[in-house]
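Standup notes
- DV: blocked on the single-chain target, sequence here:
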Amino acid sequence: VEAIKVMTVHKSKGLEFPCVHVPFVDWPWSNTRFGELVWFDTRDDSGATYRIFADNFAPDEVPPFLPLLIRKELSGTPFEAQSRGVIDKQCLDVMNCAYVAFTRAVNELFIGYKCKDKDDGRYGESSVGALLATSFNTVDYAYCSSVPDISDLLMTLDDKTDDEGTFTAGAPVGYGWEHTTGATKAMPAYYSYDNEKVWEMSRIEDFDEMAYPRRKGIIYHDIMSDIRTPDGVETAVRRRVMRGFIPEEEAAQYIDTIAGALADSRVSAWFNGYRRLLTERTFVAAGDDEIRHYRPDRIVWRADGHIDIIDYKFGEEESSRYMRQVSRYVHYVVGMFPDKEVRGYLWYPLQGTIIAV
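- DV (later): unblocked, structure below
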């Protein structure tokens, strides 16, 4: 098909195209501007508690990890080295992403970014686009001559930027496409993700490599994460239709199947009248030698005071492995809420099977 392909940088890895457009390359090098929550170790390499805690708390009162925002205020604190490590990793990830994006082009590469009217002193540090702009303005003959070992390989950039700030190197390629006419099709409704959602949905992006039953199971699982009460079933399904994950003709089947599963009286307390609900929420626990992340599908604080942990399964029943997984969830949640009765369940909505762990 002769068409424009729109995809994420992640999805383009390993591919090549005659012409590539990479718009909005204002990718920040790190998230320090708005702050990113990161778990920091409260002990040094020797295992001793940092002095800021040791002077004020008993060792058993200091948690092994603390959630802190990556901000400049961490400079000069015991967390500075860990913070710098996080920022360095973020910068490396952005560099790798830019490398992948810019090397997909065979003949032509178009890069778009915001031009600043005034240099604020952080021009080359704030984003990928800002660094490109700085390079285009400063890499002149003197700069290239300052590195004699590779001066013959360098190209001056400052003389290739016009008055509007557009940098151009080389000449456009004439492809000679023929204009053809044919039947047009109505474009279906679609959903536009923000940047974070694009990466969160990476499992959905890999549908082409998945077997059909697994694809369908992931869609069901994704729908369930959006449902708080039975009234939200249709809305959750319609959202997946708009995002292109469910064909319009299959929407009614998904709605009927999920609504039927939620009509089971055994699951009523998980979707009605509860006191508190967490869906797809990650919690962190310290293992013997590493930090472990756990993500139960649904945790419900029931009206009767119990806490129920539910894991959905939409494939074949493999209870032993999944039961061990839910048992770990229960173990850690009991530690958080020792005064509550915590129960775990495996639920196979399509089969109508519920297994108490």
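- Follow-up: Residues 80-102 form the longest helix (23 residues).
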